[in-house]
């Protein structure tokens, strides 16, 4: 038969366990209130109720008295926690958007005459004929039948052995060949301009010597990223701005593509500023990834140019006049229509510069 001492020890342990459980439940209730997990404050047991005696009437009456102070006390903490959570989600989304996107590209097939026997790299069958047996991708070197070229996936991976020039090269082809987010011409020219030319009067409006601009073009085509465009080689910053504008003018597909051109022009015709901004945001979604990334980088640069408007005298309107026809070209329209579109081209670029932080 157990002694009286052992019975007292067991009873003391049980009381200690009950007190520990009560403290744990009290902490859990406070944590729930802090995070706002409960539907209503009245459903959370208050501190006074947890300390009250075994009378159930007191436990149910206490929360109604302290519910309002508790809500007032925990509301700032709850708002802060939600803001921090939203900030973390936003930062994670931005980190994902900073990753180099996977640019899809179609093959640039051209009729080709192969020397000796050759097999199709798509169906693995022999290519018959003496001349023009099949087609070859000018960017990645893929050799296939003419019929097979119609079903080959858009998975062209340009090779630098085939892409031997920078100017007059398709923008997506260039960035995929060099595995970059933007053409190196754009990055290098903008970095040089911002380093020593933001305060230059008439920046982008004054033209440099065409012979020296051609030299810069040949340097990029010949040396790529190793091209020297520093002040030691070209002291006049207008030569670098001219080389950048020339690059955009010579793109086979303009920065604002032919497919998206009509949508951008229609957007510029909208008189309401808010509706125009919404329409422009939707129009930007029509651009390929390489084009939208290059346009974003360029507009951010031009926005910084306008920050020095007092020194360089280049406002967003002036830059729109310069870059409108450079970034946008009418797809096979008559001369009169193209002439009428110039004012809308200017307005599109001006709106992109002014609202760069919102649109991109």
From TrEMBL:
Q: Where does the Phorbol-ester/DAG-type domain start and stop, copy by copy? A: 106-156
> Keyword annotations for this protein?
GTPase activation, Metal-binding, Neurogenesis, Phosphoprotein, Zinc, Zinc-finger
- One GO term of the biological process aspect: signal transduction
- Give start-end positions of Basic residues composition bias: 10-25
| Taxonomic source organism | Gambusia affinis
What residue spans carry the region label Disordered?
Answer: 1-29, 45-70
Task: Supply the InterPro entries for this chain.
Answer: C1-like_sf, DAG/PE-bd, PKC_DAG/PE, Rho-type_GAP, Rho_GTPase_activation_prot, RhoGAP_chimaerin, RhoGAP_dom
Tagged with keyword Mitochondrion: no
The protein depicted here goes by the name N-chimaerin
Q: Where does the Rho-GAP domain start and stop, copy by copy?
A: 169-360
**Which terms does the record give in the GO molecular function aspect?**
GTPase activator activity; zinc ion binding
Coiled coil: which residue ranges?
none
